[in-house]
Amino acid sequence: EKVAAVGDSVITMAVLLVGEDHGAHMYATFMEKTAKNFGYGFVLKQLPETATQDEVVTALQELNNDAAVHGILPLMPMPKHIDTEALIDMLDPKKDIDGLTTYNIGLVTAGKGGFAPCTAKACMAILNHYDIPVEGKHVVVIGRSQVIGKPVALMTLGAHGTVTMCHSRTPDLAEQVKRGDI
């Protein structure tokens, strides 16, 4: 429905890339090739490592206000002097491709839709594909990132699983994992 609402215009995603992180540059290149292969538009808004918070905010606001851009992905990591949390919450929730805004996280948490990060959705799709029921199971999630760990925990909790979240400071991680059904 949302794709149909775009009409005849080309669906376009924008990537906001700040700094010189090699992995982020590689990911941006991959996304550009993938978008072109599927006939989507792609905009790369690249700023130098030395860009100020205000410059990055201005670049994001330009993308938010651009009607030709339908989705925005701020690539991480950004330089340490950039307040990424503040920046992410300035992202238009309707254009938040990775479900990073507090608004979209809230919708996912409440089970009311929103954009969930694609990696977390992929984890749930794998469980569904292999007919692995989550309901009534003990699910152990390793990691607590906003993009994977927390959304997977929330989605499995929403599917009526009992969730244990583990991370780098979890004592006896191996024992925790053994206790899990999933």
Strand order of the largest sheet: 2-1-3
Output the CATH class name of the largest domain: Alpha Beta
CATH architectural arrangement of the largest domain: 3-Layer(aba) Sandwich
Spatial gap, N to C terminus: 34 Å
Categorize the overall geometry.
Answer: globular
Proportion of helical residues:
40-55%
Count every beta strand, where a strand is a DSSP E run of 2 or more residues. 5
Summarize model confidence as the mean pLDDT.
92
In short:
Helices cover 41% and strands 15% of the residues. With 182 residues, it is an alpha/beta fold. The protein is globular.
Topology summary:
Elements: H1 2-5, E1 12-18, H2 22-37, E2 41-47, H3 53-65, E3 71-74, H4 84-88, H5 102-109, H6 118-129, E4 138-142, H7 149-158, E5 162-166, H8 173-179
Parallel strand pairs: 1-2, 1-3, 4-5
Helix pairs in contact: 6-7
Q: Can you describe what's shown?
A:
It is a single chain. The protein has 2 domains: 2-104, Rossmann fold; 116-179, Rossmann fold (3-Layer(aba) Sandwich). The chain is an alpha/beta fold and 182 residues long. The longest helix is centred in the first third of the chain and has 16 residues, at 22-37. The protein has helices spanning 2-5, 22-37, 53-65, 84-88, 102-109, 118-129, 149-158, 173-179; strands at residues 12-18, 41-47, 71-74, 138-142, 162-166. The strands form 2 sheets. The protein has a 3-stranded parallel sheet with strand order 2-1-3, with helices on both faces. A two-stranded parallel ribbon has the order 4-5. The chain contains 8 helices and 5 strands.
